[in-house]
Amino acid sequence: LKEGKAVKLLDELQALGTSAMPQHRIFCFIAAWALRPLLALEIARHSEVQTHMDIATLERSLGTQVVKKRLHSLRSHLQDIVLRVEYYTNPFELGTWTKPHWTQGDASALGQQLAKPMKKATIALLSLKSNIQSSTGLPSGVQVNLRKALPSWEHSVSSSTVGVVDALRASNGQKALESLSQIQAAVQGVDDVLLHTSE
User: In the chain, where does DSSP find H-type helix?
Assistant: First the structure.
């Protein structure tokens, strides 16, 4: 506020009968009037900062939701693999068989049954790796957990699953159970990451 306008405002206040008003109150009024543009600018800046914060929060929330959806998808396919394998391994694992009775036909049948969930689990893993590489809106803690877990999950989907089929073909009960336990561990690992992945 320029000096001339301040004087004019003071004159107007006095004309309205405010001459008895304490001088410090008049000064505060004039100062507040003068600072209105600065206050408006500060409010605008604050709003802009708040908007950027809101957008970042929204991006993190959306990024986390996408990752959680893919984690649930991966878990579903891994669990599908586990159930299909257990159909063959349970008799040996539970002691119904003292030694494996699997045939070449069993190994071939299991291999065919696992093809579809393995493919879907692989796609889910590739999507998760893409999320990490882009890291758009993804909280750093989630990225760290995924980076640590992905190698073992990939091993479970590929090597461990193939290992079960090979173990059935060779009637190697111990090897079949070891490979199965690695896939089961991957399911538990996904559960652990989901537990620590919040929106």
Answer: 3-13, 23-34, 36-93, 104-134, 140-155, 161-170, 173-195
